[in-house]
Amino acid sequence: MEERKINNFLLNIFNVINEEKERNYVSEITILTIKSLMPSREEIGTRIDYERFKKEIELWYLYRSGENSSLLNSIDFSSKDVYLNTIDDSLYIRLAPIVFSNKNWDIIKKEVLKNILYTTGNIEAILEGLLISKIIFLIAYNDKNIILELKDEIISFSQIGFLEEYSEFFRVSAAEYSKKFIVDFERNRIEIINLLNGISSNKFKVLKESLMVVEKNILKDDFHIFSKGLYWMKNNIYLDKKDSLKFHKDLCHYIWSLNRGRIDPNILTIEKYYLPDIFSFNEGDEFYHSLLNKCKVLKKENISEGIKVYLATKSGIYIFKK
Fold this sequence. Notes:
This protein is α+β, with helices and mostly antiparallel strands. Helix content is 54%, strand content 11%. It has two domains: 3-268, ADP-ribosylglycohydrolase fold; 278-321, no CATH class.
């Protein structure tokens, strides 16, 4: 896989989202996913470090720019219904770094499904997330038989095997699903098979758009940002933005380095987390934080809702509120 494919997909998306402020939380969740990637010591591959991922999301809660119910629920886990029934729209982009940082589809598949299940157990999200990840993988490695590969993937993806292998990663047991999980799983799986065979569906919007990109090379203004990213990657289009953040460029290069096996896991391992209370520091104070590294408080102010802190870090300026 060439590094430009990561840029054409992910860096382009960062650029677009950065201009459309309301979707910034998708970018934030994607970045913290990248920061949680860990090259394996036992095999050639990259997996998510879930101790770090959990801590990153808990920190994100304090600087988030927008939100969705699945992400918030994944922090305090106040609603089983939200987990089992709500689609987390941040997964469409945050799964991409998992795909790009690996060469082996078996590793990608397991990490993608685990990561989806961290924030949602929604069946539609599980199936769609798996297939859009496979599309990224196939385009990244120039596979010409994308539809056939997708059909093979979904036909062989049985609910019995899935539940046996991934039940421990569900944060709410599938047994607590309000309807019959197995029946709904099969219904959605068959609907995707029909979609791949050219039969229309009212579900799986992002997958439908992605198939239009794959089969007809079509791009529309109202396409989801994921589908646009696929089109840019497939057609080698880079949206050159002079104001692109160097931090985002560095992240994309970092993902490519993970893919090439050039990152020593010992460099990334955090033996002991140091997570001081950001709100305890005063203006001008400098301190170290395991997730943010070197930090400096630029401004601290009392607001009607509580406290706001402007924090300078290597990756940029964060605004924390509580």
